[in-house]
From TrEMBL:
Residues 5-145 form the AAA domain. CDD domains: ParAB_family. It comes from Leptospira weilii str. UI 13098. SUPFAM superfamilies: P-loop containing nucleoside triphosphate hydrolases (SSF52540). It holds the Pfam family AAA_31. This is CobQ/CobB/MinD/ParA nucleotide binding domain protein.
Length: 256
């Protein structure tokens, strides 16, 4: 929403859990998600324009319960992995937006792979409770494989999320700050990371009861609150980092 105040944004929910969809359309019946969703778009059953639902100045493409079968679709027809890239790189779609954000499930899932293949930039949210260098390494290898398979991925960002004030979290944050240096050493010692750009660390999103409640009840954050300021700064950083317009984003969640 902060990004949409400064640019033209489309948000696509590629996660069967529908977290992004519910953030915009809380309380809507299940039937709301049955028609004109991510899966109908990928199946070419609905056009891009007919799949969009607009709220808070964001064009949203909601998730579908049918995404649970996406792996079966890919197993039957491998071209399904490239469908998102084909649709989002279409010359008729690109000029409409400055940013296309794709919300995905965790690593090792075909939905995430498909989203990465369509993306120029990946943002990896990391929470203190789920922080794991091994998990990051696994995801980095997935990203490297995606580039080898045709992704135009050019930047990787790590976003510390739900960050509070404690000695333990300060220590974890210091570890995150050392990731770019550790990553360069990793590229020298182990195979599977050779195509990746060095990750950058974004400013943390604070742990906030207001953020939790506003997200839970699908409401925008109030102006001048800690959460709103943090997300506004994140939007400014993203815009600054993207010197070329019409970059496609994949916001990828980490699995345990």
């Amino acid at each position: 929403m902060s990004l949409a105040q400064k640019s033209r944004v489309c948000a696509i929910d590629f996660d069967r859990q529908k977290d992004l969809s519910k953030m915009f359309f809380l309380g809507y019946p299940d039937s709301f998600y049955d028609h004109a969703n991510t899966l109908t778009l990928i199946n070419f059953e609905t056009s891009f324009e007919d799949t969009i639902k607009n709220k808070y100045n964001v064009d949203v493409i909601v998730s579908s319960p049918g995404l649970r079968d996406f792996s079966m679709l890919v197993a039957k027809d491998i071209t399904f992995l490239d469908r998102a890239k084909e649709i989002l790189k279409d010359p008729d779609t690109i000029p409409k937006y400055d940013f296309i954000i794709i919300d995905t499930p965790g690593t090792g899932i075909f939905e995430t792979t498909s989203a990465i293949l369509a993306s120029d930039i990946v943002i990896i949210p990391v929470t203190p409770a789920k922080w794991s260098l091994d998990t990051l390494k696994d995801f980095f290898k997935d990203l490297n494989d995606s580039i080898r398979s045709g992704s135009n991925l050019s930047k990787i960002f790590i976003l510390p999320s739900l960050w509070g004030n404690s000695a333990e979290k300060d220590e974890i944050h210091e570890q995150l700050q050392r990731i770019p240096e550790a990553f360069e050493e990793l590229k020298k010692k182990e195979p599977g990371f050779d195509l990746l750009p060095s990750p950058k660390i974004l400013n943390p999103i604070p742990s906030s009861e207001a953020i939790r409640k506003r997200s839970e009840f699908a409401e925008p954050l109030s102006e001048n609150t800690i959460g709103k300021v943090a997300f506004d700064k994140l939007a400014e950083r993203i815009i600054k980092e993207c010197t070329t317009k019409n970059k496609t984003f994949s916001t990828s969640r980490l699995a345990r």
